[in-house]
Write a structure and sequence with these properties.
Layout: E1 10-13, H1 19-30, E2 34-38, H2 52-63, E3 67-71, H3 78-89, E4 94-97, H4 112-140, E5 143-148, H5 151-155, H6 161-181, E6 186-193, H7 206-211, H8 218-224, E7 235-239, E8 242-246, H9 266-271, H10 273-276, H11 288-304
Parallel strand pairs: 1-2, 1-4, 2-3, 4-5, 5-6, 6-7
Antiparallel strand pairs: 7-8
Helix pairs in contact: 1-8, 3-4, 4-6
The chain binds nicotinamide-adenine-dinucleotide.
């Protein structure tokens, strides 16, 4: 098997002092990348800070002969992370937005600060770090970006409204970055992991937890960031040595008026509700243009009458 290498490439992995980020940083370094190991080193809920987490991963990488430097800034100061990459390694090629915290509360009990901090770390952090790297990606006509979503964002999860909202927000961010980056060979993809870490230790059953090693997901993220991988704008779920692509899908829908001169009443909606919500022939759409084009088809159908 010819090995996928990252020699000469520089990667920032945010939240790389533990869990998934640590596994990503170790694998990038093992494959020759120079790695900025970013971690604020705070608690699971985002309180406090420490240099320990990032330092220990940097020490581990260097002890194995790899190249790494620590960065202790919060991801909301994204330009500082990119500055660390440029000052130490002279370039930036890969940004893995992985840092995360939890402030789980039922929806009715979420405070504004619980909402803001979760959004700051996950969504604003990814925006700030990636935006600071973007001009460098464009100039060199090369870049790879990962954002980290969650099944909690894709499907919802009791007690995680703030987190779910931020996590699905990251999918939207990635969708548009993928479109805007395409012409400059900047690929942006979403990873949806399930892994054993401090975020999941009291959520997942122990037997299941033991099988969900972050190291089993790292190869998926590392492949998505390789120059030979042309995947762009995709959602990739991975856990336990398995991975798949996910999509939003759309049903075929129902016509709510039969003549172009008709209006639509709530009763028209009620009367076709089963057809409108039938997903048995759902398909995926690839772009906003495709979504608009199907609407033109609907209008033609209405114009031509029943
Ligand atoms: P983790 O707590 O082990 O790692 C997250 C790291 O991010 C921590 O080391 C933390 O110090 C760091 N961090 C937090 N806030 C930061 C900030 N402002 N700036 C820089 N670093 C910061 O958790 P993990 O499970 O490895 O989570 C990694 C990512 O994967 C998170 O975005 C999480 O939401 C996501 N995720 C994890 C799972 C899972 O099953 N573990 C599932 C879905 C999504």
């Amino acid at each position: 098997m010819d090995k996928l290498r990252f020699d000469g490439r520089v990667a920032i992995v945010t939240g790389a002092g533990a869990g998934l980020g640590k596994a990503y940083a170790l694998l990038f370094a093992e494959r020759g990348a120079s790695v900025v190991v970013n971690d604020l080193g705070g608690s699971r809920s985002g309180d406090g800070s420490s240099s320990k987490a990032a330092d220990s991963v940097v020490t581990e990488i260097r002890s194995k002969g790899g190249k790494a430097v620590p960065n202790y800034d919060s991801v909301v100061d994204g330009d500082k992370l990119v500055q660390t990459a440029l000052e130490n390694f002279g370039r930036i090629d890969i940004v893995v937005n992985n840092a995360g915290i939890l402030r789980d509360k039922s929806f009715a009990r979420i405070s504004e600060s619980d909402w803001n901090l979760v959004h700051d770390v996950h969504l604003k952090g990814a925006f700030k770090v990636t935006q600071a790297a973007w001009p460098h990606f464009r100039k060199q006509n090369y870049g790879r970006v990962i954002v980290t979503s969650s099944n909690s964002g894709l499907y919802g999860n009791f007690g995680q409204a703030n987190y779910s909202a931020a996590k699905l927000g990251l999918v939207g961010l990635c969708n548009t970055m993928a479109i805007e980056g395409r012409k400059n060979n900047i690929n942006c993809n979403v990873i949806v992991p399930t892994a054993a870490s401090r975020l999941t230790e009291d959520i997942l059953p122990p037997d299941f937890f033991a099988e969900l090693k972050p190291e089993l997901i790292a190869p998926v993220v590392v492949w998505l960031c390789h120059e030979n991988c042309d995947e762009n704008g995709s959602i990739i779920e991975s856990a336990a040595g398995w991975a798949t692509k996910c999509h939003l899908v759309r049903g075929t829908g129902a016509i709510l008026r039969h003549k172009i001169t008709d209006t639509v009443a709530p009763e028209n909606v009620r009367d076709v509700w089963n057809q409108l919500t039938d997903m048995s022939r759902a398909t995926r759409l690839d772009s906003i243009e495709e979504a608009s084009a199907t609407l033109l088809g609907v209008l033609d159908e209405i114009k031509s009458g029943p």
